[in-house]
Amino acid sequence: MKDDVFYLFDKRQLYENKNYVLPNEIIKFHENQIIIDIDDNLNVPDYIKKDKKQTSYVINLISSKKSNETFNYLNIEATILKYNKNAKYEVLGVKNIEDNVISITGYEIIKIKYYNVFNEKARVEKIFFFAPLLFENFVRLEDVVYEKDTLKEYPHCKLDAYSFGYLHSVWFGDENVMAENLIQHNNFIMKNDAIYYMKNNSNGILKCIYKTPVNEYYVVRSYIAIETHRSINRTMEEKNIFEKKVKIHSSILLSFAILVPLLTILVILLLFHKIFSQKESMIYDNMRQNWKKLKHFDFNIFFNLFNYIKFQPFVIIVDDSRWIFNNKNGFIDESYENVIKSREGEETKQLSRDWPLPTDRRYYLCEVSTKYKINLFLKTPHDHYIESFWEEIIKRNITTIFYFRSLMPEENDYDYRYNNKLFTTRNYGSYSVTVTAESKESNTYISYKNLTLISNDKGTYFLKVYTIENWDINTPPVRVSYLYNLYSKLTCVSNSYNVLIYANLLPDSRVSLLVSYIYVIEVMKNDPSNDNFMIIIKTARKFKHIGPLSDHESIYLLESLLKYFVSKKILKNGKNMRRLTQDIDNYFKSYEELIECFPPQYDYIYHYIESLSDDKIKSYYGITKKFIIKDEKEMQRRCSYYYDVYGNQLECSWVDNHCGCRIKNKHHNYCIRYKNIPFYNDDELYDAKSNFVNEVFIPGNLFKYRIFDSMERKLILCQSPMDDSINNIVGIIYEKGVNIVVFMDELLNNEEEDLELTDGVTINESYREFFPNDNSEHFYGDYVIKKRSETADINQNLQGVIYSIRKINSKVREFKYLTFTASLTKKAEDHVEDYMSLILEIEESIENKCLMFYDHTGISTAAIMTFTIFLLDVVSSSVAFDPVTCLQIFRKKFCTAIRNDYHFLFSILLVICKYNEPFKNIKNKNIERVKKEICRQISFLRIHKKMG
């Protein structure tokens, strides 16, 4: 029906002996994409917020190309949907629509459907959820007040009470149950399409939680059981007189009964208080003396004390098994397990070392294990990679897990989400994990899950997992009693059982702050001889339980400890203490004033810069070894296209008997320059056709993600093409709509001594510019490229030119080609200005959604620029900034990119320098200190590359 024209006639104009008739209207059938919208400027499509009142909405069908074009000759239908489990919808009935106006009373899910009268198959439909406002997403039913043993109907929640949500869970008091697959659980039972709470004479609040497509809807009702009333045969006047007499007599008797014993008890309490105060004074006397040393408080002296107990980077140790970033099962406390292996020559002897700090319970620290990190790279997850985690949980008798969440990549896209699939209902090899209950703590940002862990040979195990949701990584916590509340919750739910403090990546300053707080409190309480909190922290750092803390975090820790000990009457809130507290308040006040000096979208990057202590920068040693697949078979599976092409190259060459070397066969294509730089299979970059080996393969990958809701970024990172693969890369530029191509023209040097050239390939193989320098058209297979502008020298290391590209008999496109002379052979600070000019040139381009970077390896300076663009996009997306998590996401697409630790640090340096402008008015020398320290560490790591 595309391009068909319809002529509409009025039958009334047809009468006898008339030879012709003119059409009333001529219309052309619309086949461009169309969307359904609601004419309501206060709301957005899909999710319409409203109150319970009846509201009318105008439904329009709008062309995606002409937003003001309303379609005629279209029929409209509306149906009411019911939202069920697994996000499925069920049709309940038809919704009336008159003149494109729909009336909604209460909350409903409606599907709007348009179809053209000339083509019923051309249907367009869209689902709208007319949802409650945020503060109206609950309903409180009338209280049920009943006499004991007379309740006619037990508390219950109906399964199908609402069409816009399904019953997810039921609470009565502290008891709860998940509605899914429930038959009977404790006091809960399902019958007659409802879940009942069957305990007799129940006093409490019933809470029914219904899941909707966007949030939760709550139904609350109180049940109050009272004693049976006794009849009183008095008039109201007699009753009042009687009550007054009783009160007078009771008051007189009560006064005599209480006064004498009260005086006696008061004297006894005073004596006990005096004795207890003397004992307490003796117990905490040493600690008080240490705190009194801070009466002449100076922050520089305090920071120097923290520098004295510096966090030692782990990667200086050659043995990877002791390296926090590369541990096997994620637990970092092997150093105080029952058996430790140490090597002396060829002999191995057994050592035993106990945990040296007298804490109330055993605290374990864990990050996502190396095996599980590798599992994130796999399309098909292997259960046995996660099985070892649950083995350690049972082995260490852990009953409570406190989890600090972080942004993690999703499996099918690269949107920013909080996710950890360890704590979900699933089978992992010989272990079965079931979530039996989940909810969010009232008035807090802590959610929890009850897990049942069943092992084939170890029986059933019960766990509680608490997730801290409002404290993002690399950001300061809320100051008011935050650590105190977390610690109180931890001690309440764990009792004396072992606790696991879990994070996606370690070291994590949030974990370090909480552990420092816990250890200082419990050690000083249990062993008065440990009276110096600095020594306690130093001991814990030796065992890697506490990572680096910034100056800001150290002051926060000090403030939290002072408040705890003052509140417990261990330290007196005297003049010196009040002055110290005031100094700390002034410090935080000045910090908050700094934050207010720049726009809020820069908060996360500023917090990250503030968190970069010298020790934290050193903790990045070895970061490039963190996310890598070492299993050869798995690497060959993930990079099968690469290895197929490489094998084909070997078959397409022959050995010259005269020189004894492998010579290239001119009848076959060469695409791969280095045989030890593999690339993942990428079906988005090229189709895996039967002839792709010689026609479309390039050593590279495409990485896409959303910057904002309306913009998707595409980054292509690859090797510069060889003579035989130039047409391949030109095809990628056209087919993927590349806007900017950046060639990182590296100066080859001894830094690349570990690269292995493919047989038959020499370093003289062309890898530099291959686009035309004249104004004539040049053919590259099926594509034609023409120079559209003169080459411009942006600076001495950066040149730019505009090219047009078209496929024969197809649309013409333009792209910008930048040549950047790249090198990291000098000091890092000497290269920053050149790289910043390249970033500025990319950002100022009108079209920059799809970028291509390449160098001769595909994983060197081009990878640095690609990773830097990704980091800058993360900052602009206003999410918590964590470059380590970003590297994890990046490595999921580019398996060996960011080869060295100093490449990683240089990208961070570029991000910090990019935000010099918004921070230039801040009177804070910390930013310059961070940049200088990063440059110093880059120089150090360039010399000692094997450490990273």
TrEMBL record:
Pfam family, any one: Y_phosphatase
PROSITE patterns according to UniProt: TYR_PHOSPHATASE_PTP
InterPro entries: DUF7583, Oocyte-zygote_transition_reg, Prot-tyrosine_phosphatase-like, PTP_cat
UniProt entry keywords in alphabetical sequence: Membrane, Transmembrane, Transmembrane helix
Top-level lineage group: Eukaryota
Residue ranges crossing the lipid bilayer per the database entry: 252-276
A molecular-function term among this protein's GO annotations: protein tyrosine phosphatase activity
Segments forming domain Tyrosine-protein phosphatase: 308-564
Official protein name in the record: Tyrosine-protein phosphatase domain-containing protein
Lineage: Eukaryota, Metazoa, Ecdysozoa, Nematoda, Chromadorea
